[in-house]
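Narrative of activities, Objective 1.

The group set out to show that a structural description can be obtained from nothing but a protein's sequence at a throughput compatible with the screening campaign. Below is one input-output pair from the validation batch, recorded exactly as produced.
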Amino acid sequence: MSRVLIVGAGLTGSLCAHLLRQELAASSRKLQLVVWDKARGAGGRMSTSRSPTDPNCTADLGAQYITVTPEYAHKHKTFHDELVAKGICTPLSAAVEGMVMKDGSYNLVTPQGVSSIVKHYLNQSAGADVHYERHVTQINLRDARWEVCRKSGSPETFDVVVLTMPVPQILQLQGDVRNLIKESQRRQLEAVSYSSRYSLGLFYEAGTQIDVPWAAKYITDNPCIRFISIDNKKRNVESSEVGPSLIVHTSIPFGIEHLEEEKEDVQPLIMKHLDTVLPNLPQPKAVKCQKWRYSQVTEAFPDCPGQITLHSKPFLLCGGDGFTHSNFDGCTESALRIVETLATYLKY
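Output recorded for this entry:
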């Protein structure tokens, strides 16, 4: 049985697994789908964190909602409609102060946290072997197959490899893959850039009141803080039994300035700025700080092809928002292009 490895259990990787499973259902080919991620759980930058004191209290430390533009409302309608029909997404109805929207666009939020979208697609890839804490370090070509090495554990062999992690992490891979990247491709990959930022999740006890008139707010007059959200209020899932959670996203300049510092040292700085923006906040029960080295794509791969092929026999592909743009529809477009490229292989 042929084996396909998808590296990265974020949105592109999970949706790719789901679409590949659909393709396989329509073909006679027998394939084993495998998904590896170096983190302890699914989501990537669509990450939902749980309070260490109450697992029902959660916060989206990465993506906050899906913005559907008129172009993609038509192009990716089946994806949006399915998520709404299954209750994974609902229209954003809460007040977001300072939000700027293009005409005809709308937002969707996730009542169970934004990682529920990724988990849905992984569930839809029924039969895929999903493994976490598997950090790929090398890829070598061995007898027309890919030998994939990781930080701990034995190497494994695959017939197809799809890389969906941030582009700089692709360029850090060792082994034969380094020599298989053409010089022109390398220059284009090296030109892909990302913004960096920190996010903070504050978790509160049940019954705590955060007295603000909005569910989320964009901040324009603070050097550190760019966005604040009362996450359960934003999702419209307020409960007397589960405490609220508050999210803080830093500005890009602040993220760049403190990028190489330990997040334990940066957290007090963010909290100090938060106190100036919201001086009467109650004391949280727990706080989690997340460093996003690769937050959003600021310069994508030229012409945004959705994916590029590093090697065709056997297939080694790269995809993700670095080859489109950083939102739900960018990742969806990448997954579609990956599966389209592999379609001939899947049929025979």
